[in-house]
Every structure is written in C-alpha cells, then in structure tokens.
Amino acid sequence: MYHSKIAGLGFYVPDNIVTNDDLSKVMDTNDAWIQERTGIQERRHIIRNEDTTTSMGVKAAKIAIERSGIMKDDVDFIIFATLSPDYYFPGPGVLVQRDLGLKPIGALDVRNQCSGFVYAISVADQYIKTGMYKNILVIGSEVHSTGLDMTDRGRGVSVIFGDGAGAAVLSREEDLSKGILSTHLHSEGQHAEELVLKAPGMGGRWVTDIMKDKDPNDDSYYPYMNGQFVFKNAVVRFSEVIHEGLQANNLQVSDIDMLIPHQANLRISQYIQKKFELSDNQVFSNIQKYGNTTAASIPIALTEAWEQGKIKSGDIVVLAAFGSGFTWGSVIIKW
Ligand code: COA
Fold first, then answer.
1. Residue nearest to atom 25 of ligand 1 (CA)
2. Options 3, 144, 184, 262, the catalytic residue
3. Most buried in the list 27, 213, 289, 320, measured by CB within 10 Å?
4. How many domains does the chain have?
C-alpha cells in the first residue's frame, strides 16, 4: 500500500481576456451585476482554431510533467476531466496520449463537470495506492466560450464561465503520513436537470436529434442552470464534504492551511470561508480573473496558490468541489 502525492502542477489559460464590459457589448449585462453576484471581473476565451480543450490540457500537462521531475515516458496513465471535449467521441484522454507522444498507456475520460478534477484525483489516488501505477497525469480542461448563448437569453449562465486548463502529476509516495490522505465523492442525480446541457444527446427524456438543423429557438444546445437552486445546494454540500474529509482524518477546521474550493462563484467561497471562520490566507480564490472554468478551476487555483508560495511542505490542503449532477467531493492532502 502506498500514498500518492502531487508531484507537479501546471496551468494554461488563453491570452484573450474578456472583461465584463466586453460582455455588456453583446448582451444586456453590466460589470456591477456580474461582480456583485459572482465576483468575476474577467475570464479568458480561446481564439477559435488556436486552442481546444485538448491543446490547452496538453500545454498545462507539459508544465506539470516538467515540474514533477519525471520524464514523459514515466507517465503510466492519463485521466482527463472535462465537459467540453474536442470531439463527441473519442474523449480527450487519447488525444493527450497522441499529442504528448506518450507510450500507449491507458487514457480515461471523466465526465463529472465541476467535480471532475476531484473525481479524477480520487481515481488516480486509488491506482497509485494499490501499486498499479506510479505516475498519473491528471488534467482538467474546458472550452466553454464556443458553446455559450452569448445573447440576453443566456446571460445568467454565459457571464460565469471561462476557458482554461490545469494539470497535475500524481506520483507514488512511500511515506504514509504524507500525500493524499483521503478522497470523498458524492452524487444526487435527482437534480441532474438543474444544471444541464441537454443536447446533443442520444436518448433519455429529452431526445434531441443529434443531426438536427440549427433552430434559433432551440436552446437545448446551451447550458441551463437554475442558479439560485445550485447556489443553495452548493453551500450545503461544500460544507458537508469538507467536514467529512476532516473527520475521516481526525482533523479540525483549524488544521486547514489552504482550502482550494472549486471556483464556482466568489459568493459561495466567501460563504464557506465565513461559516468555517477561515482567514483570507486559508482560502484561495482566483475566479475574479478566470471565471468558472469547471473541471479546470481547482488545478488552475492549486497551481497558482503553489506558485505564489501559499502551499508549503507539511500543510493540510483541502480541495472541494460541487457541480452539475449534482456531484460533489473533497480531497484531503498533507503536502
Ligand atoms: N446581467 C444582468 N442581469 C442579469 C444577468 C446578467 N448577466 N443574469 C440574470 N440577470 C437578471 C435576471 O434576469 C433577474 O432579473 P429580474 O429580477 O428582472 O427577473 C435578476 O438578474 C436576478 O436573477 P437571478 O437569477 O435571481 O440572480 P441571482 O442573484 O440568483 O444570481 C447567479 C444569479 C447565477 C449569479 C447565482 O444564482 C449563482 O451564482 N448561482 C450559482 C451558480 C454556480 O455557482 N454555478 C456553478 C456551479 S458549479
């Protein structure tokens, strides 16, 4: 039995900055509304044909591999979390294997939206714990901008999401007092349609013909979000799953050195911070610059926190996520 540790981190965001004022030129919104409700000041959008979910993931992965000190041939397995794959199939995991020139190792795609990175870390951790793999590349990457309804109709959703990618190399840790201490995953599918992209879909209750002609009135190809319902559930589930992780390791809230919440909404993170009585130094937020990048938000935030020297050896680092599904989860790490 082994532990796994985060051996290397990297992130990539497109250069193209889209401010709240930029959005107000194409839809009925404004900087004050967006900042007051979400804390977001700007986000990145890809330049079409320059970047994709995979290409951004590959750029983030190259940095993570280099920082981990392993060679790319030492990567044993790929896990790619996204809700915005380049292709309907195959998923982006195999494209990373190709584009990074990795050996013909296994590649797994994770479809857990905002909880995707936490789920992916949990899967990687199990493989490393059992000794099956030594080094696993875990990527979270999203292109939202090309799939959002950038009209007044979509303003409640489109202002929130941004593009970007983050990656981590998880490696075997022989010291069982360190590394990933535990992971905790949950789902509640009864709320699946509260945050959903219904089309293209092959079946189910809302069958939409995948080859359907573009109908301007058909909004099933755009994400739907019941914002207030999502908000209320998020604050409850974030709290529960952080407590669950702490309890499993006999830790107190005061033991948290750094909480990296999924960057869903600054108001959600602030609510959690207040509830847990954590200081500004104990909670990392960068949603102001990048918006909500779904599966990429935790690895981007974790990388920035680490780059800024906010995570030190021996720190208790907590990752927590909530999102579409609903799904939620936490990861407790002794750095
Ligand atoms: N700009 C300006 N006005 C907007 C707007 C925008 N981008 N989007 C919605 N509005 C309007 C609405 O039309 C509504 O107008 P009305 O009162 O005239 O009907 C008003 O603002 C309030 O809308 P509402 O949806 O009730 O706002 P809210 O306070 O719930 O904030 C969210 C909306 C989306 C910011 C908020 O619900 C939220 O953050 N939810 C959680 C989202 C989240 O975290 N998602 C990711 C989960 S992983």
1. 227
2. 262
3. 320
4. 2
Question: Which positions of the chain have pLDDT values less than 70?
Answer: 203-214
Among 176, 206, 222, identify where a domain stops.
176
Residue-level pLDDT at 204: 58
pLDDT of residue 198: 87
Q: Which of 20, 112, 135, 292 is catalytic?
A: 292
**Which residue in 114, 135, 144, 233 is the catalytic one?**
114
Domain of 328?
180-334
Taking Cα atoms as reference points, which of 293, 302, 335 lies closest to residue 320? 302
292 catalytic per annotation:
yes
Catalytic residue list contains 286: no
The answer, as to whether pTM is greater than 0.85, is yes
Do residues 127 and 251 share a domain? no
Same structural domain, 164 and 273: no
The protein residue with its alpha carbon nearest to ligand 1, atom 48, reads 323
Ligand 1: lining residues by beta carbon, under 6 Å: 29, 33-34, 37-38, 114, 155-156, 159, 225, 227-228, 230-231, 234, 264-265, 268, 292, 322-323
- Which of 159, 176, 193 is at the close of a domain? 176
- 157 lies in the same domain as 191: no
In this prediction, residue 213 carries a pLDDT of: 65
Quick one: pLDDT at residue 5?
A: 98
User: What is the domain-level CATH number for residue 274?
Assistant: 3.40.47.10
Compute, in angstroms, the gap from residue 122 CA to the centroid of ligand 1.
Answer: 32
